[in-house]
Protein: DUF3307 domain-containing protein
Organism: Chryseobacterium flavum
Amino acid sequence: MIFIQLILAHLLGDFILQPDSWVADKENRRLKSKFLYLHILIHTALSLIFLWNLTLWWVAVLTGASHFIIDAAKLTFQNIKTKKRWFFIDQVLHVLVIAGVSFYFGEFDLSFLKNQEFLKILMAALFLTMPASIFIKILLSSWTPSPDGPNNIQTESLTSAGKYIGILERLLVFTFIMVDHWEGVGFMVAAKSVFRFSDLAQAKQRKLTEYVLIGTLLSFGLAVLTGIIIK
């Protein structure tokens, strides 16, 4: 498949064969960096090698040219604050170009969008991300600990870490249920208990412990219930 061949070329060219020193030079000098053009040349050559068909030379040139345009836009518009965002935009655009080429050659069949089983699983997975987080937040709103309470102990935490931990744990629990590996759910509960509740025990805050426990049970409960309904 052209899609797989071009993805392999992309992974090699963008990650394995691109040293950090090249990336740093491109970010500093942007379009003046010689490594930008060397990177595009390598990427185009890899695409041609993996395609292994000289009649498809235009595909390699197209992916190389689009790669240059996308990388040039990222280097021109990104800054320290938007660097992470531009990395994902860059990668998504590269994959979309490859997908577009593959679609041109008829490699993609969009009939799966009419598959009811696929749509049900997709719907459940989407529900377990942000919608479930909002449901849990609303359910816990009356018990949310006040950060200004007299007995409150401040602990450092990554921004929005709890939200993303909840999303990941629900998706993992849902996946375990869909593949009939319920023991994985038990592993997730045990793992979270070890890491999370040991910290809460040290904090010696009963209300906070109960709050986190209710949130955890709601999170796992929603994932389990959603998995059972879909099954």
